[in-house]
Structure prediction request, 477 residues.
Amino acid sequence: MSTDIVNNYTLLCDFYELTMANGYFKTGYKDKICYFDMFFRNNPDNGGFAIACGLDQVIEYIQNLHFSEEDIAFLRSKNCFDDNFLEYLKTFKFNGDMYAVPEGTIVFPNEPLITVRAKAIEAQIVETFILLTINHQSLIATKANRIVRSSKGRPVMEFGARRAQGTAASVLGARAAYIGGCAGTSCTLAEKMYTVPAGGTMAHSWIQMFDTEYEAFMAYAISYPDNCTLLVDTYNVLKSGVPNAIKVFKELGITKCAIRLDSGDITYLSKKARAMLDEAGLVNCKIVASNSLDEYIIRDILMQGACLDSFGVGERLITSESDPVFGGVYKLVAVEDQDNCIIPKIKVSENPTKITTPHFKKVYRIYCNDMKKAEADLICVHDEIIDTEKPLTIFDPDYTWKKKTYENFSVKELMVQIFKDGECIYDRPSVKTIRKYCEKQIAEHWDEVKRFENPHNYYVDLSEKLWNIKHNMLNKD
Prediction:
């Protein structure tokens, strides 16, 4: 097998992308300019928002989009593709435009995260990779942020590498978790590839390897005197683990140290351990907790008075166990005619939530100038400009009698252009810069939107112009 597959994911697509591409080619639609939106319909865990993540991997994918000779030989073996189409694929590349919200942006259902404007074949082939990448990383970034917020300022490490659903999910999940607010990861490759701080100390096997727990602790402390975290629950936390840890720390004069609890009643054990450490004069010794944690458990044990300084969170973060599907979709919203006029397209369904919003669009975020907080998002037709010198009235797209008028406000366009004529024109930020931007985005939203249960409904409305276009299309015979 060619090593090209390491970097070339062109065939990582649903097979119907290729059968449609072949059909577009044969029917003269291959150069038809069209617009697709990638968006999602529901916030994970019934939360108040989501965090957009994964754009950088989409950029890399599109920059390397090509069909190798091996790819084309494989497609030819399927005996369902036109020979002229296969010849066309030999020089295939993405030549279109793409717009997206930057990674780390707080986003809401039904607003576009990515818009692709390209020839039909190009726009269709990129669908699967865009969805799998944005869906996965947005899901993990959102879950990570929920867990980080539950810890009330205590650092959270992502510990899920061994429970992730595959190698890419492990590494990219660590990246997304860091963007969402985690302090670091257990995944070494994530630091090498994406500069996500990697860290870790020991497993139970280290302690079992030695004749006694004391010997295991002593050997580790001598090896890592400046970063000594001892796992104290291999045998008995309060009768063995904590006393042996105290003994080693005192004998070696180590004051920058920590213990980790990985089983049992974390609240009870942390309180008892804290008292024992303080009595021994180790008031600066930290206590770390792990073991199947999530935002609800962390919130509850802290409310119960657990004496903890940081957390390691594994499978419930890296798989977003409580709600493991982000549910993003990729839908055609417009095409261009021979005069380059944009013709809106709509998908109609008996299920109202599956009716799409047509046209080439932009998204404005409305801010209250007094409080410096985000108030609502407004989806507009691409050529609409909001005049902040005049009052702005928005209305609920379903219950149109519900209206709100803003006067002292400002707006920001959420989407930026990423590709123009197939060339990336976006200044790609570092992962650390994205993480800081995400922190700023979180701070811009009201606490009511951040509640875990029954969060405030943040409005995403349509402009009057866009609402009229959509409803005129729905009311056509």
Summary: Residues 334 and 344 are 4 Å apart (CA to CA). The first strand starts at residue 33 and ends at 39. The chain has two domains: 3-140+324-474, 201-284. The radius of gyration is 26 Å.
